[in-house]
Write a structure and sequence with these properties.
The protein is mainly alpha-helical. About 45% of the residues are buried. It comes from Octopus vulgaris (Common octopus). Keywords: ANK repeat, Receptor, Repeat.
Length: about 300
């Protein structure tokens, strides 16, 4: 409990009296797991310095402290663990790496950091699902939007570069499901809307010959998915960017500042994307790779 609540003095007192800090709870979670979960960096550092913890320690679900940091959005602990040279591709008992945990639980800051430090955006789990698949299935709207925005901007800028096919909205998992299939099956209408905004194809069938709307119907979510198709339910992140894009146009900004959703519409109509002054197509592609957003 001291590690969970960040009580450093209490933890030191327990250690001085010979308490076993390598003893787990009913789930096999050690103090370092709980500290990483709650982003108590001081506790993580204390446990490691005293030899009462290991970054490779696993709970009953084989999750490491890095998995817990990614799952709970504990950015400070996550950065520290990576800085110590811990392997970011370690898998838990479900076969998920920390980035996949972050995608599942909509922890965008952690995901972006991990993608800058050894994990690829097109990584797949044992079911062949990408980060975008996991985000769509679990309703992680912020993560899904970020992934689709960046991959689709790259696709537009590079005019069909293979990178888009590797991580785009219509890539299929091991069962032939797209992001749209998984969002529809789970009733994640906002993610489904985001999928549609970024070029989702409702005609694609999976291994069972089902389209996304077929899965929506069989799982009892047809009504809410139809609302997403009719734009009665929208992705809040897409909506926010659309409003910002409208404000920019009203203020006289040039079309080169269009947001991803608007760039896609231009791309669908086969209209050329305007290039910023002094930029080649290749330079724009590289610039769009992370959309100019710095990640420490």
């Amino acid at each position: 409990m001291a590690a969970l609540h960040g009580e450093e003095d209490c933890l030191k007192c327990l250690a001085s009296k010979g308490a076993n800090l390598l003893l787990g709870d009913n789930y096999g979670r050690l103090p370092i797991h709980l500290a990483a979960m709650r982003n108590h960096l001081n506790i993580v550092q204390l446990l490691l310095s005293d030899g009462n913890a290991s970054l490779g320690a696993t709970c009953n679900l084989r999750k490491t402290p890095l998995h817990y940091a990614a799952q709970y959005g504990s950015v400070n602990c996550l950065k520290y663990i990576i800085e110590q040279g811990f392997e970011p591709l370690v898998l838990d008992g479900s076969g998920l790496n920390p980035a996949q945990c972050a995608a599942r639980y909509d922890k965008l800051k952690c995901l972006r950091y991990l993608l800058k430090h050894g994990i690829q955006a097109n990584c797949r789990n044992k079911n062949g699902q990408t980060l975008a698949h996991l985000a769509g299935y679990h309703g992680s709207t912020n993560v899904l939007h970020w992934l689709l925005a960046h991959t689709t901007v790259r696709a537009a800028a590079a005019a069909g570069d293979k990178t888009a096919a590797a991580v785009g909205p219509n890539i299929q998992d091991g069962s032939g499901n797209t992001v749209g299939h998984l969002a529809a099956k789970r009733g994640k209408a906002e993610c489904f809307s985001c999928y549609l905004n970024y070029g989702g194809n409702l005609k694609i069938t999976n291994a069972m010959n089902d389209t996304p709307m077929d899965l929506a119907k069989s799982s009892g979510h047809l009504g809410i998915m139809q609302k997403a198709v009719n734009k009665e339910i929208t992705c809040p992140v897409c909506e926010k960017e659309s409003q910002q894009g409208n404000s920019r146009r009203l203020s006289g900004d040039s079309s080169e500042n269009l947001f991803p959703t608007q760039q896609i519409q231009r791309h669908r109509l086969s209209l050329p994307l305007p290039l910023p002054k002094g930029k080649t197509q290749l330079e724009l592609y590289v610039q769009c790779q992370w959309n100019g957003e710095a990640v420490e």
